[in-house]
Amino acid sequence: MYQKLTLIGNLGKDPEMRYTPTGQAVTNLSLATNRTWNDASGQRVKETTWFRVTVWGKMAETCNQYLRKGSKVLIEGRLNTDPATGGPRIWTRQDGTAGSSFEVTAEAVKFLSSREDDGMYQQGEGGMGGISEEEDIPF
After folding, report:
1. In sequence order, what DSSP letters do the residues of 14-59 get, joined into one string?
2. CA distance 134 to 57
3. Containing domain of residue 116, as a range?
4. Residue 103 near residue 52 (C-beta atoms within 8 A)
5. CATH code at 17?
6. Do the beta carbons of residue 9 and residue 77 sit within 8 Å?
7. What is the number of structural domains in the chain?
8. Which residues contact 102 (CB under 8 A, 6 or more apart)?
């Protein structure tokens, strides 16, 4: 059996790196992907899906060093399901609505933004495509 997931999106916050007790680097990324379409009445609809990405080893250190909030990346990896439900991780937001996130273990990370692109985003010229409130970020 084989599974491969390919995602392209923007980071919702700066990478968070730590080391395991054995000294292996692990970095967590918050990735937003956007989908836009027109519904039956012709109204434009935008949908954002969040993924929690875990990167290991040397690649984790490189991601932590070069990526920032707003960086555009391509992630190749495998989907991890919640052992309790078999689906995405589900939680309740502060406002009482349901939220979920999909967990991905990265096998490859490709940087799609240039340093200049990341700098423009940090200065407020870039965008996440409708994501503006920290409450929308589930982690």
Report:
1. --EEEE-TTS-EEEEEEEEEEEEEE-TTS-EEEEEEEEEEEEEHHH
2. 29
3. 5-127
4. yes
5. 2.40.50.140
6. no
7. 1
8. 49, 50, 51, 52, 79, 88, 89
Residue range 74-126, pLDDT digits in tens: 999 999 988 888 888 888 889 999 888 889 999 999 999 876 665 544 444 44
**CA 29, CA 71: separation in Å to the nearest integer?**
11
Please return the burial class of 103, using the count of CB atoms within 10 Å of its CB with bins 0-12, 13-18 and 19+.
Answer: middle
Q: Which residue has the tokens 């990526």?
A: 67
Residue the block writes with tokens 């997931």 = 5
**Does any domain span residue 134?**
no
Q: Tell me the C-alpha distance between 15 and 67, whole Å.
A: 7
CA-CA-CA-CA dihedral for 128, 34, 65, 80, to nearest 10: 140
Predicted TM-score (pTM) of this structure? 0.75
Q: How far apart are CA 28 and CA 31, in angstroms?
A: 10
Nearest to 3 by CA among 102, 101, 89: 102
